Each structure stands twice: as structure tokens, then as C-alpha cells.
Amino acid sequence: MSPTTETLTAERILEATEEVLRRHGPAKATVVDVARALGVSHGSVYRHFRTKAALREAVTKRWLDRTSQALSGIAAEEGRGPEARLRDWFQGLFDAKRRKAGHDPELFATYSVLTDENGEVVGEHIDDLTAQLTRIVEAGVAAGAFTAADPAATARALFHATGRFHDPCHAREWERPGVQDEFDAVLDLLLRGLRP
Amino acid sequence: MSPTTETLTAERILEATEEVLRRHGPAKATVVDVARALGVSHGSVYRHFRTKAALREAVTKRWLDRTSQALSGIAAEEGRGPEARLRDWFQGLFDAKRRKAGHDPELFATYSVLTDENGEVVGEHIDDLTAQLTRIVEAGVAAGAFTAADPAATARALFHATGRFHDPCHAREWERPGVQDEFDAVLDLLLRGLRP
């Protein structure tokens, strides 16, 4: 095995895949495209990702995981008030999505195509996020700050009611003036709905 | 003036325009296409709609107005409880959108292109709808059933928080099992947030 292939980790392949996607759009990013960009044989990429579908799925998951990992810290801040945690969590989600869409719109559009292709990965990502939210809702119920007969169902309702501020199909609206006020008004109403 | 052109009302032209759109997609529906479909001279269509843009704008407005007119009856039912009126209004909006998307998906896709072109008409439509909602919120405040410092702002927040159930970008989700439960959970939470 040559030194090049020894250091060829899955992470390095996924970084290169993102770069191929960024430069050439969603139609690209086959195993062969990525091997060429890395200057390695496609066999060495296949050792990590056996199909084009597996590679595209993994890079989509990596992109989505970056958001959920950034938010998991807020969900875990047990010491803070549940209302502040819930608001910060949604603000963090909105900011992360807005940054991705605004700073690199072409890559964002590319990932929109990939997420359409990988419904199962997106479903797992949303399950991750609503599990974090459920934890905040449960902490609020335990502290007597929130009422929720079924915290997981309430977490899903909160996620759906804030879709305007994280679902990629609303990305065009995120740069409009007043969108932060809209976010605040929706959060105010939802937090009122959670109070006992 | 021949009998044909005498009966050529704006409404007849818009009906024909919708039929042209249904058959040929959003790229069609110029004044000339519509005149041909009606078997009249394009001059007689121009008497009602001076440009292609004006014709496309008018047919978009007609499509959107059908929804707001259907809902205005619910908004005006002063005798009923505000919670029931609010829930029925949003259910009516969701059902109308779901019906349009499900029964004639090609025409729905065509109108999605037209609404993208006609941002101002869509803005007026949303103003119409939130004005109806404001009326329901104000009635709720007057009856002591709702709290809202600024009923118009609350109406906009309610509209934004329910986007999953009326914004065309979510149309793919409207046929999924469980979507009615999702709608109910969001409405429950929002109605709780409105209570004094």
C-alpha cells in the first residue's frame, strides 16, 4: 500500500467530494470524479464507499450532521432556563441555515438536490434534531416551566411551526428585511403555548 | 362588433388562459395563444389585457382569489367561537391547497411558476389572508378568548407558523400519512399560545 492510500480516510474522501460538488454541481461526484480530484485510483475510494449512491449519501449526512452537532451543545445546557435554551436552539438552527444558504448559495443548491435524493438521511437528521428538542421540552416540563403531555409530539410541532426559518424551501425569504422579527413573533407565540 | 367579441368578457379570457396553461404549461399563455384558443383576434384580447404580463398576472390573481373568497365566509362568522373559527379557517386553507395540488398537480406546478413571477400579486393575496385572520384574532380579543397586544402581528405569526400546511413549497408533504395529525398538533400549540 502506498503512503497516499494509507492516509486516504473516509473524511478526506468526503472533503474532496464536497469540493467536486462545489466546483461542478450536483450532477458530478461519482466515485471516479472524486478519485480523480484526489489523484488516487478509484479502487482506493471504492474501499471506503462501494457505490456512487453510498458516497453521495455519506456527504449529505456529513453536511447535515455539521448543523446537528453545532446545536447539540445548546440542547445539553441543563443549567440554563428552558425558554432561553429553546429560543437559542431555534436561533442557532436559523443562523446556521441562513449562513449556509447566504455564504455559498451554489453549494447550498447542490445540497438541496442531494437531500431530495436522500430522503432517509434527511429523515434521520430531522429525528436527531427533534430528539434534541424533546430533551429541552422534557427539561422544561421537569422544571415546571413548560406543559407538554407528550414532549416528543410537542417537539415535532415546534419543529413544524418554525419551518419557515429552517426548511431550505424558504431560503429565498431568509435575506428579506424583517425576517428576524418574524422569527421572534413566531417564537413568542410558541413559548406562550408551552407555558403551564 | 360581431356577437363573439361582444360576449368576450375578461372572465371568459381568463378561463381560456387557465385552459391554455393546463394543456401547454407555464411557458404558454401569451395573448396570442389565448386568442387562438378562443378563436378570436388577438386585438379583442388586447382590449382587456394590454400585455402578456398583465394577462398572466390577472390569471394568477384569479387563482389565488378563489382561495381567499372561500375562506372569507369563515372569517366573517361573528357568531361562532374564535378558537373554532381560527381552526376551521386554517383547515379550510390547508384543504383548499391540498385539493389544488392533489387533483391537478400539473396546473398546480404551472401556477407555482406564475406565482414566482408575480411576487406583488402573491403579496396582496397574503395581505388579504392575514387581514381575514386579523379579524378573527380581534374578535377573540374582544370576546376575552385570546390575548394579542398587536392582532395584525399575531395574525402574521400564525400564518408563518402554519406555512407547512399552505405554502406550495411543502406540497409534497401534504399527501403523507400523519400530516393531519401534524396540523392538529401545531394548531393546538398555537391556540394555547393565544389564550389569556
Question: What does this 3D model show about the protein?
Answer:
The structure is a homodimer of 196-residue chains. The first copy, chain A, is mainly alpha-helical and 196 residues long. Chain A folds into two domains: 44 residues, Arc Repressor Mutant, subunit A, CATH 1.10.10; 138 residues, Tetracycline Repressor, domain 2, CATH 1.10.357.10. Helices cover 72% and strands 0% of the residues of chain A. The longest helix of chain A has 24 residues. The mean pLDDT of chain A is 92. At the A-B interface, helix 9 and helix 10 of A face helix 9 and helix 10 of B.
Provide a brief overview of the structure.
The structure is a homodimer of 196-residue chains. Helix content of chain A is 72%, strand content 0%.
Structural class of chain A: mainly alpha
What is the subunit organization of this protein? homodimer
Helix/strand order of chain A, N-terminal first = HHHHHHHHHH
How many beta-strand elements of chain A?
Answer: 0
Largest interface: A-B, 23 and 23 residues
Tally of separate helices of chain A: 10
What's the number of domains of chain A? 2
CATH superfamily of the largest domain in chain A: Tetracycline Repressor, domain 2
Shape of chain A: elongated
Binned, the helix content of chain A reads over 70%
Any idea what the radius of gyration of chain A is? 20 Å
In percent terms, what proportion of residues of chain A is strand? under 5%
- Largest sheet of chain A, if any? none
CATH class of the largest domain in chain A: Mainly Alpha
Poorly predicted runs of 5 or more residues of chain A: none
CATH topology of the largest domain in chain A: Tetracycline Repressor, domain 2
Please name the CATH architecture of the largest domain in chain A.
Orthogonal Bundle
Through-space gap between termini of chain A = 64 Å
Mean pLDDT across the residues of chain A is 92
Domain HTH tetR-type (chains A, B): 7-67
Keywords (chains A, B): DNA-binding, Transcription, Transcription regulation
InterPro entries (chains A, B): DNA-bd_HTH_TetR-type_CS, Homeodomain-like_sf, HTH-type_TetR-like_transc_reg, HTH_TetR, Tet_transcr_reg_TetR-rel_C_sf, TetR_C_27
Organism (chains A, B): Streptomyces carpinensis
